[in-house]
Each structure stands twice: as C-alpha cells, then as structure tokens.
Amino acid sequence: MAKYLYKLANWSTAHKKSVLFSTLGILIILVSLVLYFKPSFNGELTIPNTPADKAAELIKEEFAGAAKQSTLNIVFKAPDNETLESEDAQSSISDLLKEISEDTKVASVLSPLELNNLNEDKTIGYAQVTFAVEADKVSEKSKEHLLDSINLTRNAGIQTEIKGGDIVFSDIEFEGIYEVIGVVVAFIVLAITFGSFIAAGLPILIAVLGLGISLLGIMFGAYFIDLNSISIILAAMLGLAVGIDYSLFIITRFKIELAKGHTVNNSIAIAIGTSGSAVVFAGLTVIIGLLGLSVAQIPFLTLMGVSAAISIFAAVLISIITLPAILGMVGHRLSPAKKNLLSNKITGNSKKKAGTKADLWGRLVTKHPVVLSLLAIAFLAILTIPFFHMNLGLPSDGTAKSTEMTERRAYDLLTEAYGEGFNAQLIVAAKVDALTEETQLAAGEIVQELSELKDVKTVSPPIPGPSGKIFMIQITPQSGPDDIKTKDLVNLIRDKSKETKNEHGIELMVTGTTAMNIDISQQLNDALPLFASLIVGLAYILLVMVFRSLLVPLKAVLGFLLSLGATLGFMVFVVQDGHFVNFFGFPAQSPILAFLPVITIGILFGLAMDYEIFLVSKMREIYIHSGDSRKAILYGMRDSGGVVTAAALIMMAVFFGFMMNPDAMIKSIGMALAFGVFFDAFIVRMTIVPAVMSLMGKTAWYIPKWLDRILPNIDVEGESITHTEKNNIN
Fold first, then answer.
1. Is the confidence at residue 315, as pLDDT, over 90?
2. How many degrees, rounded to 5, is the angle at CA 593 between CA 224 and CA 48?
3. β-strand partners of 508
C-alpha cells in the first residue's frame, strides 16, 4: 500500500493546482445540486415488519379514511385561581379554535368541553385539531399559522402548548455555536502540537473540505432516499473529528521528514506513503465498523452507518489527495518542529535529560506495569458495572426535549392532569377470524380482561372497523412511555393474545408510538451480540495482518471491550440512573438511546484501532530492527504517544462540542464518543497497552511461521519505501 500512496503523493504535488481546483469544483457542483433539489430529512425512527408496525398497517388499512388524516392536541392550563370553564377562558379558547380552523388544511377542531376531557379541578384540558392530510404532509405554513394562533390564548393568561403527535414542530437542528467551540479547542490543541498557526489551520481546512463534500453528497442523496435527520449530524460529528485527526498524523510525519533534511516534495511523499498508509487502513476500519451496522437489518440504522461511512471516506480521500497538493503550495512555510531534538532522536545522540522528558510516561509504565495495568483495568471494570442493568428505549417528549420546547411543556401538562400513562397510550387491534355474535361478545369480555391487567389505568370500548373484522381498543397505562412497566404491559397483552386466539379466534396486536419504540429497542438489543461479535472478530483478524502477531491483537481487542464496557456503563450511570444528569444538561433521566450501543461499538471500534495502529506500529518497527521489546515500547510511546494524545484531545473537543447540543439524542451520542475516546486513548492505549506489552516481552510478537507466510503484507509503516527511493525525490 505504501508505495502506491507514495506515487499518489508525487502525482498530487506535481499537479497541485489542478487537484485543489478539482476539489473546490466538486464542492461547488454539490452546492448547486443541493440548492436546486432542496432535499429534506425526516425525524422518524421506524423498523418495518415489527409486531407494532404490522398492527399499525392493519389499522391503517381498516380505517383508511382516518389514516389519511393527522391529529394534534392543543393543551391549555388556566391561570392561577381560575378554571377552563370560566367565561373568559371559554371565549379565548373559542377564538383560538376559530382562528385555527381558517386554515384550509384543517378538517375539524374540537374544544376541551366538546371532548369532555377537563381534569378533576378543571384547570387543564386539551383541544384536538385534525388536518385533512397525513402528518408528514402538514406544511410549514400550517405549522406557522398554528404557532402564531396560540398567542391568542397565551396573551389571555392561559398557558397553551402543542402536543404534535406525529407532526413535528421542534426538529433536530445544529446548534452551530457549540460545534464551533469544539473546533476552536481543536485549533488550540493543534497550535500547541505544531507550534504554528499555519500548521494548526491546515488540518481544520482539510477536515472542512472533506466534511463539506460528504455532507453535501449525503444531502443530495436525501432527495432520493428517505434519510433520518440524525444521520447527517452523526456524519458531521465523525467527519469533522477524523478529518482533523488524519491530517494531524500526516502533517506530523511531514514535519519530521523536514527535520531529517528532506525536501518539501520528498517529505510529502514519505508522509503520505507512511502515515498516509496508516490513515487509509484506520479509515477503512472505521468504515467497516459503520457499514457493519447493516448486520442489524434495521433500515434507518443502516442508512446512518452508510452516511457516516461516506464522511469518513471523504476525509481519507481529501487527506491523501488534496492535503499533499496544499502542502506542496505552503509546505515551505512550515518549519520543522523541534528540529534539533528530532534530529538527535533519529541519530541517537540525544542527551539523557531530554530523552527522559520525552518518554517519562513510557518509562513509568514499563517500570511499574503490574500496578498500573491492574489499576487501569479495575477502574474500567468498575465503570462497566452499571452496563449490566442497561434499559434501552427511544426518546419521548418527556426525556428528549428541553422545557424550552412546546412539546415538552405539553407533555408535562398532560402528565400533571392525567398521569404519566396518558403519554404512553397503546392501541390494540383485535383481529377477528370470523365475525359472529360470539366473537362480538368475546371482544367485550376481552376489554374487561385487559382492564384487569397489571399497570392498566383505563381501556376504551372496542371500536369496530368498516369490515367488522377489526376492533380498535385504546389502553392508557399507569406508567409512562419510558417506564419498564409499560414494556412489560405490552408483552403481557401479546402473551394474552395467544389465549384469546385459541379460545375466541381473536388476535390482539399492539401498536402506538410507545409500542413502536419498544419493538425497535428490542430488535436493536437482539442485534447487539451478533454485531459486537463480528466487530471483535474482524478487529482481531485485521490486527493480526498488520502487526504479524497473535497476542498484540488479542490485547488490543480485549482493551477495546474494556473501553466499550466502561463507556456504556458510564452512560447508564449518568443518563439512565440519573447521576449528574443536570450537570451534563440532559432534560431528564431516561433509558439509553436504543441505537447508541450499536453506534458506539461501530465507531469506537474504528477509533480504537486508529490509536492502536499509530501507537503499536511504531513499536513493531523498532522491535523488528532491534529485537529489544522494551526499547520498542519506549520508542513507540515517545514518537507516537504525543500524536495519539493530541489526536484524542481533538476528537474529544469535537465530540464535546456536539455533546453541548440541547437535543438529547445528539447529546447522548456526543457524550458516549467523547468519554469513549478518553477511556480508550488515555487508559487503554497509553496505559494498559504498554504495561501489558512490557509483561509479555518478546512473546508479544510471536506468530507461527506458517501463518506469517500466508498473511498479506499490508505495510502500514511504509517499509517498502526504501531510503534510496526517498532520496531520489526532488
């Protein structure tokens, strides 16, 4: 691989203007396409053919007229010491509903009194607005008209909020300022690392170019494919972080080659041939992990993985093609950082004092490997403990949205008035094999039996469909949509369906938003072991090929499992158990985002392998030439440890920027990745890895000769680039 990238770098520097203008040209073309087609994203997280989805489709087919409409609730709370039955309140609500009904897309409006839904003290109730179109076809104009109209009752002192149901009013958005803060911190880390503002700006420029191309490409694709809004945010998060990191690795090697006395073009070619090889391999591991999300066979998760993989692919291409061209233009302005120190290290003439400062941590770890490795492993193991009671779920208005959003305030008012279960209503489709008097009587009996189930608050009378073979029953639980008791109730109803099917020929199928979320969470939970096994197995095979060792990859994989367990355990401790939930800015404690474990495995796997490759490949290079395992560890920590540290800090800065976003889903993903990088880079790679390798000694590099012969030579360190070839470059 190295020699091909070496040649690619020479071509790129020779045609630097063409490469740069081509990159900008692609960017301009994509901007034009996006502006012309104006693609949009949706916020739905659905899985076809789950039990809840099948029930929803059955109801949609039976009640076809209602399926073409969409409803929302407008929730009212009377001013202090007043009720909604007062003349003033009724007048204000009547004026509001009249204003709303002027929208031609509104089919009907019903007041709280018409629905007879005022709470016990008559202070809270809700009106129902029905649109003549499906939820996803309600226009922004209609939404704006509704939001403007509710000021009529708000100005009258009545708290008025909107519970949109499937109609989204507060969509997921980038909070630009937070992401910018992450980039600024990354720039500071780069400036300290390189000691140059020009050098610090290059990785960010390259990352922005790659990110722009990938995000615009994804947005253009969203015109043809139904893509979830979280997909582009995940792609942006990863593309920005790895784009900066990959450029950091290459520019660091470029400056080292300058310090050795090579010309600018020669230094670029060597940097791309060596560090560029590691970047390509590292990028491929992240891409494989993301594409592996398709194993779960969940469409929205597959598209999230593909979108993020596109951003990684763009970051890799820009790093090995466009970065050499830009370095060819400005490389002469980048002075070799710490030239004398680097030269002394290379020639072996460094003073003892300088060497001690350079690899102080490496010497400490290799001197006390047992103590430090045990402390690090114990720390991660303790953090992993909460993982074993993890409860997966999807966000509801009560857990995902802040109190600044009208949906959250509506959720809280409805909970105050009718209890948590009102926001977790279940729809049961009672499917009758044959319509007889007996089955009609049985339907009534079933309603009574359902009302006696644990955690059921109310059950509505069965509503027959036009065919008479489908009855729709609404159940209000005692518990909320995120409560495990509600999940148990859904399973109880489905278990009861086996009895009603055998006894009366009536099948009970549960649906509704809460049931949908439960099914999605369960399917993601079921896919987790298979996906984790494939990722771990793949990681081991890839690392065996890279490091030509059996034990080094085993140690890497076990370290990955430790950092993964600690990350998910920490997320459970904070988000689910509620410790420091306010400190981290979550709206409320909640179940762990259903797809977070799978996403974390796929991404953290790739990032962990990045750090492993950049750190241990240097150790392998020194060991092959010296045969001294301890010396190899010290040189690897000294020469690559600083770069890995800077790369991890940059990753964390970017992820922390997204973690500051008020949206609970984005915050959860950003937090998991930020702390995952911290645990893996600083505790596993920089502590456990050198400590365990010190204990293994030369055994760490053992591989059977027959296996060594059949393994392909990936050449991540660029061994195929000889010194003669390097010196022949102008």
1. yes
2. 45
3. 430
Question: Residue 11 has which token pair?
Answer: 């071509």
Element (H, E) at 595: none
Cα 71 to Cα 22, 105, 305, 465, 562, distances in angstroms = 50, 12, 33, 19, 47
Q: Which residues contact 585 (CB under 8 A, 6 or more apart)?
A: 660, 662, 667
Residue 574: pLDDT above 90?
Answer: yes
Radius of gyration of the chain (CA): 30
The yes-or-no verdict on residue 279 having pLDDT over 80 is yes
CA angle 674, 677, 683 (to 5 degrees): 130
Exposed, middle or buried by CB within 10 Å (0-12, 13-18, 19+), for 526?
Answer: exposed
What is the SS3 assignment for 46? coil
Q: What's the distance, CA 109 to chain centroid?
A: 39
Containing H/E element for 392?
A: strand 392-393
Give the Cα separation of 51 and 630 in Å (integer). 58
Which candidate, 406, 392, 402, 396, places its Cα nearest to that of 587?
402
Largest Cα–Cα separation, the chain: 98
In the chain, where the domains are located: 2-37+173-394+519-727, 69-163, 426-511
For residue 348, pLDDT over 70 is answered with no
Confidence of residue 127 (pLDDT cuts 50, 70, 90): very high
* CA atoms of 398 and 402, how far apart (whole Å): 8
**Nearest residue to 215 (alpha-carbon basis) of 133, 308, 103, 345:** 308
Q: Which of 324, 315, 318 is nearest to 267 (CA)?
A: 324
- Write down the pLDDT at residue 354: 39
Judged by DSSP in three states, 426 sits in strand
Task: Report d(CA 457, CA 420) in Å as an integer.
Answer: 10
Buried b (16+ CB within 10 A) or exposed e, 21-38: eebeebeeebeeebeeee
Contacts of 83 (CB under 8 A, 6+ apart): 89, 118, 121, 122, 123
Q: Are 443 and 471 in contact (CB under 8 A)?
A: yes
Give the H or E element holding residue 75: strand 70-77
CA 221 and chain centroid, separation: 19
Name 505's Cβ contacts closer than 8 Å, sequence gap at least 6.
432, 433, 434, 439
Q: How confident is residue 476, by pLDDT bands cut at 50, 70 and 90? A: very high
**Dihedral over Cα of 697, 701, 705, 706: its sign:** positive
Span 426-511 CATH architecture: 2-Layer Sandwich (3.30)
Give the total residue count for the chain: 730
Q: Return d(Cα 68, Cα 630) in angstroms, integer.
A: 71
- Same fold: 69-163 with 426-511: yes
Q: Which residues contact 239 (CB under 8 A, 6 or more apart)?
A: 207, 210, 211, 214, 215, 308, 311, 312, 314, 315
Instruction: Dump pLDDT digits (tens) for 614-663.
Output: 788 778 878 887 888 888 888 888 878 888 888 889 889 888 888 888 77
Positive or negative torsion for Cα 630, 632, 638, 644: negative
Superfamily of domain 69-163: EIF_2_alpha (3.30.70.1130)
Within 10 angstroms of residue 107's Cβ, the number of other Cβ atoms is: 16
State which amino acid sits at residue 149: S
Token readout for 705 is 């000769």
Measured CA distances, 353 to 163, 338, 349, 372, 536 (Å) = 67, 16, 12, 24, 41
Alpha carbons 648 and 222: distance in angstroms, whole number: 32
Q: What's the token pair of residue 173?
A: 């958005």
| Cβ-contact 96, 153 below 8 angstroms | yes
